[in-house]
Amino acid sequence: MIKRLKTLYPSLITEEESQSKGLYRWFMTPDNQLLGILEDEIKEKEHDLLDLLLTPYHGAYPPVTEREQSWYDWIFEGTNFIHTAPKEYRFIYFSLSEAPGDPNDFREAVYGMYSYKPVILFSSQKHGVIIEEERPDEEDAVTFFEMVEVFTSDFFIDVKFFIGPYLRDLSKAHDYHTWMDQQFHHIQHFNTKPVMTYVSAVPYLMTVMKDTAALMFLIESILKSTMKDEDLLHTIQTFLEANSNASLAAKEMYMHRNSLQYRIDKFVEKTEVDVKQFEGAIAVYLVLLLKRQIDLA
Questions:
Q1: Does residue 176 lie within any of the structural domains?
Q2: Looking at 33, 56, 79, which one is the last position of a domain?
Q3: C-alpha 269: how far from its chain's center?
Q4: Which of 24, 152, 170, 231 lies 20 to 30 A from 289 at CA?
Q5: What is the pLDDT of residue 59?
Q6: Buried/exposed 32-41: b ≥16 CB within 10 Å, e otherwise
Q7: What is the pLDDT of residues 52-103, one digit of tens each?
Q8: Which residue has the higher pLDDT, 137 or 5?
Q9: Cα separation of 72 and 80, whole Å?
Q10: Is 140 in contact with 112 (CB distance < 8 Å)?
Q11: Is 206 part of a structural domain of the chain?
């Protein structure tokens, strides 16, 4: 059947080829094989016929807006660079315990948590990424634990989120997505938390990451613009090795406590990682040790 349909619809793809660009309509064959046909290739009078021959599939593979298509092409395929770039963006990956009955209901539930409609891309029936293109005000910030509760109570689906950092350089979005997606799959094997950030994931990731390029991406995601500020990084490492005791660290560095506190605040502002809290402290300390090791190699 698929070979015959392919002669009529050259754009036809199967589930394994579903990262091909384009807006597709999806169907399930009688032997439960998923296939998609480019919408523009289906004539109006052929829709009903295809619905009779095949079961319409309301899976969430195809993007539903032009903006989603642009992001899909760029981060999944590395093509069609997005020229109307947001000032900031970040990726929030999700994993569902089972496929939603209707992807549109899933989208509407996510939209309800935002003051605007974020981009939502599915990589499979149960995995995908939410792309935030603007940073919400503090009072409008999305609480992902609340979103977990919504899906559990309203859809009877368990969901896990992996929240990435905010970035500005859109040219790195493709590599950023590839890295984040790989790490999300890694941590799911031993993570029991429904919501994890890139900061809280550091101890887990360091046990599985071996590739130097991937490790450098981890370092850059944590340290951001402080990467080359060796004096500041030395100050933070000294502070952490003094059990986060500012007075003791200032004494060791022969500086006034207020000067040390200023440097700590400067680091937190630039990285958005709070080293005064356990989660941020352990992530930054491990990354600093990793950076020293790579620098000496």
A1: yes
A2: 56
A3: 22
A4: 170
A5: 47
A6: eebbbbbeee
A7: 888 776 545 566 688 888 898 888 877 777 777 788 999 999 999 988 877 7
A8: 5
A9: 9
A10: no
A11: no
Which two three-digit tokens encode residue 140? 């409008």
Structural domain boundaries, residue 28: 2-56
Q: Are 107 and 163 members of one domain? A: yes
- The pLDDT tens digits for 212-260 are 888 999 999 999 999 999 999 999 999 999 999 999 999 999 999 999 9
> What is the three-class DSSP state of 48?
helix
> Are residues 182 and 254 both part of a single domain?
no
| pLDDT score recorded for residue 134 | 87
The enclosing domain of 254 has a CATH number of: 1.10.10.2840
Three-state DSSP class for residue 229: coil
pLDDT of residue 141: 72
Sequence-separated (6 or more) residues with CB below 8 Å from residue 239: 245, 246, 249, 260, 264, 275
Q: What single-letter DSSP state applies at residue 94?
A: E
The total number of structural domains in the chain stands at 3
- Residue 247 burial (CB count, 10 A): 10
Q: How far apart are the first and last CA of the chain?
A: 57
Please indicate, yes or no, whether residues 75 and 187 belong to a single structural domain of this protein: yes
Give the C-alpha separation, 83 to 141, whole Å. 26
Q: Compute how many other C-beta atoms are within 10 angstroms of the C-beta atom of residue 168.
A: 11
* 139 pLDDT higher than 80: no
pLDDT score for 126:
85
Query: How many residues are listed for the chain in this entry?
Result: 297
* Helix or strand (DSSP H, E) at 163: strand 159-163
Strand ranges across the sheet with 34-38: 13-14, 34-38, 24-28, 55-56
262 in a structural domain: yes
